[in-house]
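pipeline: protein-struct stage 2 | run 1193 | Lipoprotein
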Amino acid sequence: MLIIPLCLALGACSMLAPTPAPHGEVQGASTSGAELGQSDVNRIATLGMHDNLDSLYRLLDKLYRRNPAEWKKTAGSRELAIKRVRDAIEARQPWPELQGKHDIQALSLALTPDFSGDRAAAFIYGAADMIIVAHGGKTKFYLIDGFDAQYLYNAARNMEIAAWILNSRKTAAGQPLLLSNDMSESERNISFEREFGKIIARIDLLAEMTTEKYRRAGISYLQNLVGGTFLQFLPVR
């Protein structure tokens, strides 16, 4: 007899429970003929690079919103400034304010206290260039491409160091190099930290996959060698 009241109570609770807010869904990339020339690792690396660059562009937009004086040094609008940086990164063109420097040298220059150019643009360009260099200088990968796990690992650590410098280093006037995370008493905004964390995690995963690929190749060889000798079925008639 208690079953009916219990069911009614549960039904009432379910009707009163708030509907979960939508959080989107996984969006897969469209299939292309180029995938025929990619291994699973190549494909994951290509998707990871695409997502890492998108993360850097989001960081650039966030930095420009918190530091509008930076984009005003090089462009007439925030959108145009972002486009210029994006075009330079994807075309592998040098960024003028970095004096021809690339990779970690560009990143280091962008984070020096006395850098007077568009620091947000220089920082994101230097970070992107460093990541691309760690991937062999490419943003799309095919069967002929390989990865150095140590270089990838180093790139992830470089991003950790860059994020720490951005949050801790001051200019000669005692001001932050760029306003980013806000950990004040009135507000707690760590969206920058989360975006950096995504980039670091993607690169670390690819480094582990690269190491695992060669390790598993050796194990598979031994398994086939042992199996071919000892794991054969015996005749029963």
